Amino acid sequence: MSTDRHASKGLTPTGERADGRTGLIINENGRVPTKIFDYYEAILYAFYNREIKICDTDMSSALSDCVGMLEVATYLGCINVISKPVEVALSKHGQPLFRAIQAQPAVWATTSLMLQSETIFRESLVHLAGNWKKLRTDAATMERLREKPIVRQLAENYHRKLMARGKALELSVMSIYPGDMCTPSQDLPIKREDYSRDILVWMALTFFRHWLGQRIVSQKGYHSDDSGCELYRQLGTAGEAYMDKSVMNQFHAKFPMTKKAMNVLENHLLEIKECIKGMVDKHGILASTCQLDVHRFPVAYLTCVEVEREDYPWLRKERVGTGVGARRERRMGGNEIARENLEKARKAQEERGESMEVSEDESEENEEGAGRLAKRARCD
To answer: Which of 39-43, 49-53, 201-205 is the least confident region?
Structure first.
């Protein structure tokens, strides 16, 4: 659902819409529409095991609903009651959810921390690490990650691991000698004539390294914005994906030879390409660990990041809190949450120079109401 529908509309002196369109203007007696009461209702019904429904037509609205309910649940101190139902409701969307995560990985990563959703957090981290070089220049993304430094730290760590894998692959490709090029004869020492018989193989390998060296020097390898994704896909496809007929004609123009020799050289080059393709497959750098269907919805960066379970922030806290000799942290009760919220409100008004006019009877009534709600929300 677009936010434009909720924006204020200008009226003519006769009370008609100034934009010339017909139809009702969604409002609440002039107030800006709000879903806060819907969030409270969904959360309170969750105590009775009623399913939480998330918008299934627009993932931006679904994200807004998710964040809104989590904020209300955090205020009420019952986030553990709705975290799994919200995660289940989001997971039902399938590929639209994963496409939304791919479009806004930072937003979903910070949201998944509140949900403690391993699926959404892992998916977000794969896209953050894979596309980090572009995302780190986006002001909105960096502003979002400042709220959760742990997410940025993990994204940078996994991106460095991704670059290390790309560097290792490039070193392997640049130093390979396919087939029996190193030992054309079993009689040692190998004579010059034995090597000379494979001159076209050596020329094909030289042409390949010439092309690959130019790509790397041109920042198309792991230093590129896509961390070498385009280059590795070419190497992993082989055939005519790179160094096609037009490129080979440029080499033949500088190193002319007979038509038969040109065909033999190009056949050797195809064999070298197939060998390189096997090496790329062995490194697994083109594999995808995300749940987004990258064949239907391709992305221009690597998605082979393998997120380790011990890196989930909430699991780190649990291990620290449940170590040898450690005591389990006590959860706050409803009365304590109400007192904390009232105290925060008092401090906020004192900073604005206002007074908090709440009588002692009203304070006790608020605490009793919060206590009754906490009895329903308490799971432990």
So the answer is: 49-53
Does pTM top 0.85 for this prediction?
A: no
- Non-local (6+) Cβ contacts of 137 within 8 A are none
Listed in sequence order, the residues at least 6 apart from 117 whose beta carbon sits closer than 8 Å to its beta carbon are 83, 87, 90
For residue 306 the two structure tokens come to: 């393998």
Write b or e for each residue in 333-369: b if 16 or more Cβ atoms lie within 10 A of its Cβ, otherwise e.
bbbbbbbeebeeeeeeeeeeeeeeeeeeeeeeebbee
Residue 336 to residue 233: CA distance in whole angstroms: 57
Domain ranges for the chain: 27-158, 161-283, 330-361
Condensed to tens digits (0 to 9), the pLDDT of residues 71-82 reads 888 888 888 888
Which of these, 144, 151, 148, lies nearest to 124 by C-alpha position? 151
Nearest in space to 264 (alpha carbons), one of 203, 352, 178, 351: 203
What are the tens digits of pLDDT across the range 243-299?
Answer: 999 999 999 899 999 999 999 999 999 999 999 999 999 999 999 999 999 999 999
Q: Is 28 helix (H, G, I), strand (E, B) or coil?
A: strand
Q: How many CB atoms lie within 10 A of CB 256?
A: 9
Neighbours of 158 (CB within 10 A): 21
